[in-house]
Design goal:
Layout lengths: L3 E3 L1 E7 L7 E9 L5 E7 L4 E7 L7 E7 L5 E2 L3 E4 L2 E8 L8 E6 L7 E7 L8 E6 L4 E6 L14 E6 L7 E6 L29 E4 L2 E8 L5 E5 L7 E6 L9 E7 L4 E6 L13 E5 L7 E5 L5 H4 L26 E5 L5 E5 L7 E7 L13 E6 L4 E6 L5 E6 L2
Antiparallel strand pairs: 1-26, 2-29, 3-4, 4-5, 5-6, 7-9, 8-9, 9-10, 10-11, 12-13, 13-14, 14-15, 16-17, 17-18, 18-19, 20-21, 21-22, 22-23, 24-25, 25-26, 27-28, 28-29
């Protein structure tokens, strides 16, 4: 299947040594010697994470690649703050190790040095699926815990807040879960989506921004999304909870607040091949009344009859999250997302009631991909406007330039 694009140009590509399985972790570091290093997490063994020098995005160069301890653990997510990197570890079955996250000193990119490991293993825990680390002080996790027993095994990852101000001694300072999902909860269990759609009431993205350090914006998979007041980190309190599933098919992934405009962008992840869980959309919310967010539009999607049967997943996933820090592009009017076999798609939200598509890039299928089509898994846009996109089935790392 030939690549197609509109308003995007490919600058470069790196195959990461042929090791694919790329997750939802992209971070950028400005090294002390001036090099720009993109760090990417692998969501399947044998590799853990890879560092690529993208100072010239037309000539990317690998500087380091590390391995996981065994085949039943993955490092789906990572974040970079200065010369500190946090890496998530999720195991395939509850009770296994290592399940948690690790902090690395990456001041010498060729030689990442482990500083600490925070253990999230336990009899009902698979560890950490996703983490958010933006201020250098707290890591926000979607994670299990040794002392957390879910009523249903699918609900094993909750929102946890970890203090890393002393990087060698991380400690938990707060947690929250959807009432009714933990053994012993007074609240009744939440009703499940009908099979095969129900995948669990778990935390996913756990975003906290310097604009509102007292708020956590948490995608909660089949539980929709939650805005939490974390001014008292020991006692997070829900400010708003919105869930549109049913009638939709769950897996709310990312909540991106556009603070200046009183809007939120919310994505649902496609998790089934061949469009079986369609529709998985990007939603626009009016969030002027924080306690009552209201959906007002969805972003136009590629035609389902053209894309759903191309191979692998089709639908929304993650978006560039306006990451804090000097190396991240931020916009209140444009968003860029990963859409699996729909590639990279960009939208203009100048009129939030009528989002307009303004660009796409759909690469060719990676060689020997079991999906038979690209599976763009995550995107990150740097302050130069370079878009980095990763493929979860072996397509490596793409560097793109937008023409809008």
């Amino acid at each position: 299947m030939a690549p197609s694009s509109w308003n995007y140009t490919q600058l470069g590509h790196h195959d990461l040594g042929g090791f694919g399985g790329l997750g939802e972790g992209i971070g950028i570091q400005l090294a002390k010697d001036g090099r720009r290093i993109v760090w990417v997490a692998h969501e399947s063994a044998p590799m853990n994470f890879t560092g690529i020098d993208v100072s010239d995005p037309r000539a990317p160069r690998m500087v380091v690649q590390t391995e996981l301890p065994h085949a039943r653990v993955r490092s789906n997510s990572l974040e970079v703050v200065g010369d500190l990197m946090a890496v998530a570890y999720q195991v395939s079955h509850a009770g296994m190790q290592p399940a948690g996250f690790e902090l690395f000193d990456i001041s010498k990119p060729e030689s990442p040095r482990s500083i600490a490991f925070f253990d999230c293993s336990g009899p009902h825990s698979r560890g950490v699926h996703q983490l958010w680390f933006a201020d250098g002080e707290y890591v926000h996790l979607a994670a299990g815990a040794a002392d957390f027993t879910p009523r249903d095994a699918r609900d094993d990852q909750i929102y946890r807040i970890i203090d890393v101000r002393a990087p060698s001694a991380p400690r938990e300072v707060g947690r929250w879960w959807l009432p009714g999902t933990m053994a012993g909860d007074a609240a009744p269990p939440p009703p499940r989506l009908k099979a095969p759609m129900g995948t669990g009431f778990r935390a996913h993205n756990t975003n906290v921004y310097p604009n509102r350090p007292d708020r956590a914006y948490v995608g909660y998979i089949d539980g929709g999304f939650v805005i939490l007041d974390i001014a008292d980190k020991a006692n997070p309190k829900p400010v708003a909870h919105f869930n549109h599933s049913p009638p939709y098919n769950g897996f709310t992934h990312t909540v991106l607040p556009l603070f200046e405009r009183g809007l939120m962008v919310v994505t649902d992840e496609s998790v089934m091949d061949n469009g079986e869980d369609w529709p998985k959309l990007v939603w626009i919310f009016d969030a002027r009344c924080e306690s009552n967010p209201v959906p007002i539009a969805t972003c136009p999607m590629p035609p389902v009859d053209v894309f759903s049967k191309r191979g692998g997943r089709f639908g929304a996933h993650n978006i560039h999250e306006n990451n804090p820090g000097p190396l991240s592009w931020r916009s209140e009017t444009q968003i860029v997302g990963a859409f699996f076999n729909g590639g990279v798609r960009a939208y203009d939200l100048s009129d939030p009631y009528r989002p307009q598509e303004i660009g796409w890039f759909v690469p060719d299928a990676p060689p020997n991909s079991p999906a038979g089509a690209t599976q763009i898994n995550d995107v990150y846009v740097d302050e130069r406007g370079v878009t980095y996109a990763v493929d979860r089935m072996g397509g490596g790392l793409l560097m793109l330039e937008a023409g809008f």
